[in-house]
Design goal:
alpha/beta; six-stranded mixed β-sheet; 51% helix; 17% strand; RNaseH_domain; RNase_H-like_EbsB-rel; RNase_H-like_dom_plant; RNase H type-1 domain-containing protein; nucleic acid binding
Length: 242
Amino acid sequence: MRINYCLTRFSTSMGAVPFDDSHGNHLGTFTIFLARNQFVHQGTVRCDENTTVWACNFVEEFQRAGAKLILSDINQILIAVPVVKWDRLTKGVYKFNTDAAICVERNLVGVGVVIRDFEGCVVGSSTQRLAANFSPLVAEATALFRGIVFALEAGLTPLTAETDSKMVVDLIECGSSPRSDVGTIIFDIFQLIMTHCIPVRFALRFANMVAHSLAKLSLSSSEDLFYLESYPSFVERLVLAN
């Protein structure tokens, strides 16, 4: 009975902690069971306030560790994920990859674009930042749209596109756009790919790491950047490894 009472009190206390994501919720629940185990096996009772403080510190450390991984040296990214090699295209065809990154705290969306020729050489890249509070789906669709526009304006056609958002690809393939914010963007994408015969394919995150890193980089950039036959030195190791 006492254990259940403590767990109920801990749960009530933890419910007031402003966790921003599912990781925070899971970690918050974890602290409740940690306190329970300490009581059962060691006889140690942690008061509600101490448990809440410990949970907040634990979650903050977890999130900081995640941020350090994202912004760490590119060598650590190469170690953290398996390298997926470039899939050679038909001669004369270009392929671009896009990705989006979101910073909820600053209401920012980052867009990363990388374009390669049929031999795998980078012929264009871009980092773009938007002041917006987009959902992940809208952000990914926006990144794809902006990637198409960049490639077309640079004259890099014929073209094929890849994104690591399966939901965006599914919406495009179904041929109809829902009545929502993402539906408007999907409609614009659909118009472009039909006009210019651009196939859109799904790519695993591991095959999209250059665009992913560019999207993260764009969040710290003060302006939109566009490169032709070049790319930021930050992603050079990933480009060469891919």
